[in-house]
Sequence to fold (311 residues):
Amino acid sequence: MKKETYDIAIIGGGCAGLASAMYAGRFNMKTLVLSGDLIGGTITLTDTVENYPGFKKISGLELAKAIKEHALEYEIDLKEETLISVERQKDLFFIKTNENKEYYSKTVLFATGTKFKKLEIKGEDEFLNNGVHYCALCDGFIYKDKVVCVVGGSDSAAKEALLLTQYAKKVYIVYRGDKIRPEPINMKRIEKNKKIEIINKTNIIQIIGSKNVNKVLLDNLYKGEKELLLDAVFVAVGHIPLSEHAKHLGVKTNKENEIIIDRESKTNIKGVFAAGDVVNTKFKQAIVGVGEGVVGVYSAYTYVNTKDFIV
Fold:
């Protein structure tokens, strides 16, 4: 083949992408990984992981590092570059990155993950990093002996609240639903933690302050008031799939913009696969994404070895 061509280009350097790279290396596939500037992905922002097989308790950063080191045991090209565009050229995919680099690959596996979803309310952008945050592990230490709140009712929101109790003197969980829905073990931890108070059936509709946040406006009364005094708001209301580049190739997504895959991690486009939080699997877990990535690489390996490529 005239052009230097990779067998597989893995877009994303989180758990799913790195595990995919490890398996691609084991299959002796010529492998490119474009990790962007956050190798390890969003799990590196998680304080404690207790549901990844083989590790009773490990930080997200340590887990990502272990998977990365395993992947680098094989001959893969891991580049801290960000995908700018990917186009189909005959049987190959033509890839451009933010470093003005160009690559060709026979297959592409999207493990692009997600970005934090915002509340889209007044004051959220104004007080970003001055009382509005999206990562307790990153910014919780700022609020030692302060009053903070977490917005959201998921297990992720619960874990954010529990982490914040290591610093703050009071942590509210503000949730629009009837009751929060963490994993049972984290629900028990919240119930035992005297620093945490849950405000259900309530939304924050405005974040207020001067230089920094000092209160929020609620849509329901709380102890007779619609204003809640606090020093910070940690937003944990979900994530937005980073699927735009896949959609540009014609890959089908659902109404949430998640990439639709089958049990072999195949998309509707031949030679294109996907795994991890960006896909339409309901149960978003590191171990699930890793499994999808490994299956996707096997599908890519089969595709590469059963097709005659035209450049």
Observations:
- The longest strand covers residues 213-222.
- The chain has a mean pLDDT of 95.
- The CA atoms of residues 83 and 97 lie 5 Å apart.
